[in-house]
Amino acid sequence: SQGSPSDVILPGATLGVLGGGQLGRMFVHAAQSMGYRTAVLDADPASPAGLVSHHHVKADYLDAAGLAEMARLSQAITTEFENVPAQALDTLAATLPVAPAGAAVAVCQDRAREKAHFTGCGVSCAPHAVIETQAQLDAVQDELLPGILKTTRMGYDGKGQVRVKTRAELIAAWDDLKRVPCVLEKMLPLDFEVSVIVARGRNGDVVNFPVQHNLHRDGILAVTTVPAPGVSGAVAVEAVESARRIAASLDYVGVLCVEFFVLQDGRIVANEMAPRPHNSGHHTIDACDVSQFEMQVRAMANLPLVEPVLHSACLMLNLLGDLWFPGGIATQTEPDWPAVLALSGTHLHLYGKTEARKGRKMGHLTVTGSTPEAAHATALQAAAILG
Ligand code: ADP
Ligand code: MG
């Protein structure tokens, strides 16, 4: 049964995670280091999390037998994949604690619902229009152009979106996207992007990690820097307060990441949120006293949440598959890890994916330093080695 809100799930129990990607793998590592056993649901026999978990249930998210096996093995369930069908979470919630709940995940899966939720919390987002019908397309106001047309569901790493300058381009773009439900967002003049990760417990306690500065390349996160350079105290407070409010009003349990745009006029607007640990929080493993993955364990197990402390300045560099093909060579070669690890303050994380592909997230490198300048200097040296 769901148990009472104060029921603690102690180490030795088995924690289940839906999804076997790198986020699941780092969750499994954190849970295991605290003495938990783990169960992963992922159909891929070589999934990064499945490879390191006590149990690996190789089934689809909606496979009834697979879900029943997860429920039998686990004392609580979380997710690492935001597009896991909310129905799978609801099914599991009938017999054991599930965090976050399917209802909260469902909001995060749909850009239109997500934006409505932001607005309802008094958090501003980009001016936008929902486009599900020809009439809605016809009614789009000129002031939303130039804009970005995004599918409401399943987009990630810049996929499922098209930049449009004119009404003609908008019409063509919606056809290209097969006329699925979309959101047209006004293109905003960004200064830079930040994100805030919060964790919320069953009792309503909320903690937050410090604001993260995120640099994207080709729609994919490239570098996260903490402390976030160029962020005023007022912007940091607004981002943190907004993220905490968004989590509370979803009655959220678990780890939630909210991404924001900081505009050239200094205002901030919420972009999107993820109902799970986030790529922009990977540095917390090496630069904070409690990582985002340990926080996910604590939240789902009903253990105390404590405000995390950043003990080192850091930069997190995503390691994409491109690095395995320097200068466009044809055969996969391993980057020069010994040279990178010879630099003091480098922490290498590889996700156990054997095949490198362009744009595929293979791992990340966190560089810590006693000052932001020291971390930055080391990160530049590491980047030069990686090429
Ligand atoms: P994804 O789910 O692929 O991460 P996002 O909505 O976060 O999709 O968009 C990817 C990136 O595109 C953002 O990080 C930002 O750099 C840029 N972007 C998205 N929406 C806007 C906008 N309204 N104005 C300006 N840039 C945007
Ligand atoms: Mg994004």
UniProtKB/TrEMBL annotation:
Is-annotated flag, keyword Hydrolase? no
- Any idea of its EC number? 6.3.4.18
> InterPro entries given for it?
ATP-grasp (IPR011761), ATP-grasp_carboxylate-amine (IPR003135), ATP_grasp_subdomain_1 (IPR013815), PreATP-grasp_dom_sf (IPR016185), PurK (IPR005875), PurK_C (IPR040686), PurT/PurK_preATP-grasp (IPR054350), Rudment_hybrid_motif (IPR011054)
GO molecular function terms listed in the Swiss-Prot or TrEMBL record: 5-(carboxyamino)imidazole ribonucleotide synthase activity; ATP binding; metal ion binding; phosphoribosylaminoimidazole carboxylase activity
Q: Which catalytic reaction applies to this protein? A: 5-amino-1-(5-phospho-beta-D-ribosyl)imidazole + hydrogencarbonate + ATP = 5-carboxyamino-1-(5-phospho-D-ribosyl)imidazole + ADP + phosphate + 2 H(+)
Residue span, ATP-grasp domain: 115-301
Q: Which GO terms describe its biological process?
A: 'de novo' IMP biosynthetic process
Positions that bind ATP: 111, 150, 155-161, 185-188, 193, 216, 271-272
Keywords on record = ATP-binding, Ligase, Nucleotide-binding, Purine biosynthesis
Query: Pathway, per UniProt?
Result: Purine metabolism; IMP biosynthesis via de novo pathway; 5-amino-1-(5-phospho-D-ribosyl)imidazole-4-carboxylate from 5-amino-1-(5-phospho-D-ribosyl)imidazole (N5-CAIR route): step 1/2
| Cellular component terms (Gene Ontology) | cytosol
- Asked if the record carries the keyword Transcription regulation, the reply is no
Record-linked PANTHER family? PHOSPHORIBOSYLAMINOIMIDAZOLE CARBOXYLASE, PURINE BIOSYNTHESIS PROTEIN 6/7, PUR6/7
Assembly and binders: Homodimer.
Q: Note the NCBIfam families from the entry.
A: PRK06019.1-1 (NF004675), PRK06019.1-2 (NF004676), PRK06019.1-3 (NF004677), PRK06019.1-5 (NF004679), purK (TIGR01161)
Q: What does this protein do?
A: Catalyzes the ATP-dependent conversion of 5-aminoimidazole ribonucleotide (AIR) and HCO(3)- to N5-carboxyaminoimidazole ribonucleotide (N5-CAIR). Catalyzes the ATP-dependent conversion of 5-aminoimidazole ribonucleotide (AIR) and HCO(3)(-) to N5-carboxyaminoimidazole ribonucleotide (N5-CAIR).
The family line of this record is: Belongs to the PurK/PurT family.
Q: Which HAMAP family match?
A: PurK
Give the protein's recorded name: N5-carboxyaminoimidazole ribonucleotide synthase
